[in-house]
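Why do we care about 3D structure at all? Because function follows from shape, and shape follows, mostly, from sequence. That is the central idea of this module. The next example makes it concrete: a single protein chain, its amino acid sequence, and then its structure expressed as tokens.
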Amino acid sequence: MFSDFKNGVTFAQTWRFSQNQAFSGGGATIYSAGAWEAQDTDSAPSYSTSMSVSSGVFSFPSTGIYKVDANVYFRLTSSTNNMAFFETYMQVTTNNSSYSNTAIMIQSISNSNDYAAMSDCCLVDVTDVSNVKFKMVGFPQSGHDVTVTGDTDGSYTSLTFTRLGDT
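And the structure:
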């Protein structure tokens, strides 16, 4: 039945955000120095090559079609109890310079110190590992403060990169 199936999933890796990051006003890459770490607990697979990250920008280990699954867990930290929202943009560049949105997550939250979560996914055609990169950018609603939650022992805010096959 699957005799012609070749080059299936050959790579999958989860990265988690290990620290909290506050957002206020304009957008910013979801990044804190050293905050993204490859999952290293439970049954995390090990590969000879893996994703790499620098300043919140992820590089792919090889060409191919990748599915990127994103989970963002956040808390409204504004002192107001008015409804607010937080947007997260999944962005890709094909020239290692200008980024475009491939998916947008928007979640509302109603009370200060309440938590919310959102998730989405996108496909990335990695034709050149030097130029095709991925990052997430967070934008809180104007006048509100949001903290993206991270933890080194759990994947509250995380990214899973799965290579689906050849490009």
